[in-house]
Amino acid sequence: MANSLVKNQEILLTIKRIGINGEGIGYYKRLAIFVDGVLPGEEIVTRITEVHDQYAKGVFVKFKGEKSLERVEPKCPYFGNCGGCDLQHCNYEYQLRIKKELVVEAFSKYYNKELNPKLFKDTIGMENPWHYRNKVKLPVRFDGEKLVTGLYQENSNRLVYIEECLIEKEDIRKAVKQICEVLTRFQVIAYNPKTKEGVLRHIVVRSSTFSNEMQVTLILYKEDKRTIKIARDLIKIPHVESVYYSINDDLEAIENFGEKNVLIIGKETIQERIGELKFRLLPTSFFQLNLKQTEKLYNTVLKLGKFRGTERVLDGYCGVGTIGLWVARSVLDVRGIDNNKQAIVNANHNAEENGIENAKFYFGNLLPHLYQFADKGWEPDVLIVDPPRTGMDINLLHYLQKNPVKKIIYVSCNPATLAKNCNHLSAKYHILQIQPLDMFPQTSAVETVVVLERK
């Protein structure tokens, strides 16, 4: 049956729940309507902007009744305009409840067996949910007078220029301002997507909480000797210890870094620390963006693992080895696998630097290594996985059906793929606990740790 809604039509809507992108969802004649910036329980007038077979989108026009008691005035002047945050309009305790609900909803939708509600724990939050992000990748533009950075408006190519960001570490924003001043003074030309002219596309800054060191990478559209020479001056900015450039001429690429990443001046790596563990980071090293919550996340893995010191642990999708190294002192031995060669070099170096002798990391895909380990008599008791948003590899899921390890600890940044993967494993495993954790306050993103035990 065709929708009776048309574009620009104004309708009365009661918001029922929050969606995975922080949008309010209400229903008009059973059709889901998505509206940004509104909360459950609020009755609003919305103007329809898009109509599809399964859903429609609208924009907020006005309130018809009382506002939600959970609503607060957003702290950030850019909220609702830049695409960085989507939950600043509700209080933090409510954000934590929303994140738990998003995980519960994902399992009710994609997990086919009945789950006891007590398995879902309350979201682990932050004491101070601001200024936590330790790395930024910012597009650069010329505003007519100077180079500026910003964030893209939600679902658009329009850049919102930003002077201050309340979720970035404060030293990062200060450094970005100084970087833009230096590059403006020397007339470095920002890349213009419309005219396809210019050189500088993005500025990437990583800041170490432990050492206060900063690493700057300029993402260039093409190799430009003049810009690279000018970039040497960025080392004079306080705390900047490392300056790189990277060439990326692929305008469709999601990843900012190109294949070529070159140190211009300063140290090759900066040092960071999680708890007692030290890590040396290259610009391209994957590393958690919120260190306070990372420590809580890894302690959650440790707690839920209930390790006795006799376990053989496989750290799948291990990156630079952070989770594997975190649990290494509580288990017999750890083997990590990742298909990023540089990450594996980093991981083994990190093990050496921290004096951890019972952890070794291997480059390549998971399954070939698993078969090789099994041939040599090494089989894991516990599998820890922290896969990308797309979830676990389908071949690994099939492998676990035939070769179920005793326990899986699944760390996920995507509730939907997590629930689907757990459903896939449900023939051989049952779930012991589902623990959401807030890695990105003020946004709808939620991290979850699930423990599965072999039946």
Count of distinct strands: 21
What would you call the shape? globular
- Class by alpha and beta content: alpha/beta
Unreliable sequence segments: none
| Helix fraction bin | 10-25%
Number of domains: 3
The Rg value, from CA coordinates, equals: 24 Å
Describe the sheet with the most strands: 7 strands, mixed
Strand order of the largest sheet: 8-7-6-9-10-11-12
Report the top-level CATH class of the largest domain.
Alpha Beta
Overall description:
The protein has about 450 residues and is an alpha/beta fold. The protein has three domains: about 10-65, Nucleic acid-binding proteins (OB fold (Dihydrolipoamide Acetyltransferase, E2P), Beta Barrel); about 95-125 and about 285-455, 3-Layer(aba) Sandwich (Rossmann fold); about 135-275, OB fold (Dihydrolipoamide Acetyltransferase, E2P), CATH 2.40.50.1070. The chain is about 25% helix and about 30% strand. It contains nine helices and 21 strands. The chain has helices at about 90-110, 170-185, 225-230, 290-305, 320-330, 340-355, 365-375, 395-400, 415-425; strands spanning about 10-20, 25-30, 30-35, 45-50, 55-65, 135-140, 145-150, 160, 200-205, 215-220, 240-245, 260-265, 270-275, 275-280, 310-315, 335-340, 360-365, 380-385, 405-410, 430-435, 445-455. The strands form four sheets. The protein has a seven-stranded mixed sheet, with helices on one face. A seven-stranded mixed sheet has the order 17-16-15-18-19-21-20, sandwiched between helices. A five-stranded mixed beta barrel has the order 1-2-3-5-4. Strand 13 and strand 14 form a beta hairpin. Helix 1 (about 90-110) runs parallel beside helix 9 (about 415-425). The longest helix has 19 residues, at about 90-110. The radius of gyration is 24 Å and the shape is globular.
